[in-house]
Amino acid sequence: MISKFKPSWMxxxxxxxxxxxxxxxxxxxxxxxxxxxxxxxxxxxxxxxLADWLREMKKYGIxxxxxxxxxxxxxxxxxxxxxxxxxxxxxxxxxxxINRAIxxxxxxxxxxxxxxxxxxxxxxxxxxxxxNSILVKPLVNNDGWTTWFNxxxxxxxxxxxxxxxxxxxxx
Length: 171
Ligand SMILES: [Mg+2]
What we know:
Strand content: 5-15%
Pfam families: Hydrolase_3, Hydrolase_like
Number of helices: 6
Distance between the termini: 25 Å
Order of helices and strands: EHEHEHEHEHEH
Keywords: Hydrolase
Structural class: alpha/beta
Oligomer: single chain
Bound molecules: magnesium ion
CATH topology: Rossmann fold
GO cellular component, one term: cytoplasm
CATH superfamily: HAD superfamily/HAD-like
Number of domains: 1
GO molecular function: phosphatidylglycerophosphatase activity
Number of strands: 6
Helix content: 25-40%
Protein name: Hydrolase, HAD subfamily IIIA
């Protein structure tokens, strides 16, 4: 059961995820969470740094698709300045949104990675969909979605993973 929460890799943030790393692991497609992964949950849009990162991915032919539980209007507002496809109301931790992106864009699961800041939604849904996963640290700590209980649960699962797997470390 705990293996369902194990990320394939862990990075400080998306900016540490490079085209070279992805190519080295035969990844061509990125599905990514929005809030606290690409953009702080309490901001309406992204940064110049995000624009650079997206440009870099495009240059190397890596397709980026946002898969978010948030609403169509929140996501389209946040991504106004970027040319990025997205799936809204993804229903993570269920696999619905990831599968929709995979089918809609004809992605190969082995060549796809889901990036997100939550073990319980992003990583869990990725593992259940048969795609790779990258856990990143949340961009801001004081996020809106989390209740005290969710944070507690997330920390608990992380401790279990650290106990069980020797390769749990931030790159
Ligand atoms: Mg998030």
